[in-house]
Write a structure and sequence with these properties.
The complex is a heterodimer of chains A (423) and B (63).
Chain A: H1 9-12, H2 17-35, E1 38-41, E2 49-54, H3 81-88, E3 91-97, H4 131-138, E4 144-149, H5 155-161, E5 164-167, E6 187-192, H6 195-206, E7 219-221, H7 223-229, H8 232-245, E8 250-251, H9 257-275, H10 277-282, H11 289-298, H12 303-325, E9 330-334, H13 343-346, H14 354-361, H15 366-371, E10 375-382, E11 388-394, H16 400-413
Parallel strand pairs in A: 2-3, 7-8, 7-9
Antiparallel strand pairs in A: 1-3, 4-6, 5-6, 5-10, 9-11, 10-11
Helix pairs in contact in A: 3-6, 4-5, 6-16, 7-8, 9-11, 9-12
Chain B: H1 4-13, H2 22-38, H3 54-61
The chains are: A alpha/beta (423), B mainly alpha (63).
Amino acid sequence: MSDPALLSLAQAREVPPNELLSACRARIELWQPRINAFIDLDPAPGFGIPLAHKDMFYRAGRISTCGSKIRRDWVAGETSAALEKLDAAGFADLGRLNMSEFAYGPTGHNEHYGDCRNPWNPDYITGGSSSGSAAAVAARLVFGALGSDTGGSVRVPAAACGVTGLKTTWGRVPGRGAMPLSPSLDTIGPLARSAEDCGLLLQAITGEGYLPGKENVRIAVSSGWIEENAHPEVAAAVLAAVKTLDKHPIEVEAPDFDALSAHCLVLMQAEASAQHAKWMRERPGDYSSAVRARLEAGYAIPASYYLEVLRLRGACLERFCSQTLGAADLYLLPAIAIRLPTREATGPKGGDEMPRLLADLSRLTRWVNYLGVPALALPCGFDSRGLPLSLQLVGRPFSEALLLAAGRAFQRATSWHERVPPG
Amino acid sequence: MTTAATIEAILAAQGIALSPGRAERLARAQQALLDASGADPLRDALAFDADPAGFLAVMQKCK
């Protein structure tokens, strides 16, 4: 392969870091004007395999905007636990990646730093909130990136940009030095070119080995629900993918995604609004209108209801593990049930359909955050417009090794993850 | 039923200024959210002793 920036992370370990850095910088020069993945490049990125991260992972002495106007000039006083681990493992940090304002939006729009654009077609959204992480990995500007996932913010952009994204079990990766949105739901996870590369990054962050793991997994799926509710192109790709992993999947009744998503939103809205209360009182005009509207909603959640939803959480997790997973190892479903919308349809000038489109984007991801379980989004095809399609595997708490092994097995049998947006 | 006036009062009590014309839309959205969450049958079966922090123990049990 002539361009070392196109290698997998595992292969890149065999290439001198200065060659990797030059190759990635050349691609950034080409792609940044098209996709706006970076908020800022670091002039001294360190020496190692090039990564870059969502601009909410703090590095002492460096600005971390969190995608916001409010923190445009804010300098972090500490380095996040996750970045410390990646530094120690010999990765370089090329700069700060674009994101939705305060990680509170599913599309990748950002009125303060410009929208991040999808490398497969810049008219379409990248998904959010880890928009720059997914776009940069998809365009092969870096070998991997950290994102955060509170309601789908790793998996939605990974799916939209055709890369692999891991939402970790709640509590698995320490959140110290990462911007909080909703502490009961926040998780940190890698986006990379494959499940194997995600495993290498997670291993660097947690110090635990995730590969190789058991690859023959039992899959549970709700085919009828997918056929009825997902776009036909999404359904066809996802249901074809099931057979690659398990010739005889277990058919189960779908969880009540909408009730679980609503539980998730109750927690997310109340916690995010509490987190932002001081700024919402003192400078509400410094938020974009979309984020301000989301934050306003949280102040109307009754405290008693918030606590009731927290008390319900354990019972909901037990129900998922016993009734949905049952004898299976993993539950398979689309990462996004609809085809990807345009930036225009979901932006500030979006029409009457916009609220429904935004809700649909994370309809199949939010419920996972409420249950606290891990999930992996990985490419499983392309739609008739040439945009990526993605499946999602959901496991029991702390089953990252199993998820990554299943993802690796799927990617050994398919080549969707190897496709690169045309330059 | 959550009304626009209730929403305005709740937010005002917390010192939050609502964007113009937001209260009515917010009231509808919040009612829809609470209705969707309340539709979970587990809510009616929730044990009196269920603890908000009990989720952590269930995570370990469900590994």
